[in-house]
Amino acid sequence: MRTLIERLSTVEGLEHVLTRFTDSCARPYNGSIFENNRSPYHLTCSMQAVAYFGVRGDITDVLPRIRAAHIANWGPQVSEGVDLPHAGGTVTYALTYHREGGRCPDGRLMSAPTLEAPGLRIDWDRLHMPLPNRVEEPAACLPVESGCIYRRCSTVPDAPMSVAAARTRYGTILTFTLGGWGSTAYHYFTVPRRK
């Protein structure tokens, strides 16, 4: 996770603001007495990170640089790493969204753009678009809940600038989320249930 965040940090036009790391282990949900969806695991552990960046300049200048950094193949692609035309989750779609003002030629709203790859997602402020998005401040670190055995939450740097202050400085905030389904950090440690 740190390596990918560092690679994104080297993209011209992005300034790292903060990263929130979460590591937790829990007993899987096995449903109610009326459901038969017993997990094959007794314990699962997963990590997630959300890195916040200030965008210097226009996001449409930065998106091609993110693609050129080869952090992931963003969205569906055809041969030789070319984005599938009109496919969501790609840099090409995101650039078209901004160029067209978030509307199809017939006036319909386009779906909001993000960059997506297995276990990775990039999103950003789109404050003046038909489907606005505003990156929020990171949520407070949650306490250990029932079913959760362990949770560690940390922020780097220890005393970061707020997202609101970063937005005032840079104009646009971008988030890079790592973890979840498709990530090597999802269920990175499991304890199988004995049969």
Percent range of helical residues? 10-25%
- What is the typical, i.e. mean, pLDDT? 90
The low-pLDDT segments are: none
* Structural class label: alpha+beta
Largest sheet: 7 strands, antiparallel
Number of helical elements: 4
Rg over alpha carbons: 19 Å
Strand content: 25-35%
The quaternary organization reads as: single chain
Helix and strand run = HEEHEEHEEEHEE
Shape: globular
Number of strands: 9
Task: State the separation between the terminal residues, measured CA to CA.
Answer: 34 Å
General description of the model:
The chain has 195 residues and is α+β, with helices and mostly antiparallel strands. The chain has a domain of 135 residues. It has 4 helices and 9 strands, in the order H-E-E-H-E-E-H-E-E-E-H-E-E. The strands form 2 sheets. Strands 1, 2, 5, 6, 7, 8 and 9 form a 7-stranded antiparallel sheet that branches. The protein has a two-stranded antiparallel sheet with strand order 3-4. Strand 3 and strand 4 form a beta hairpin. It is globular. The mean pLDDT is 90.
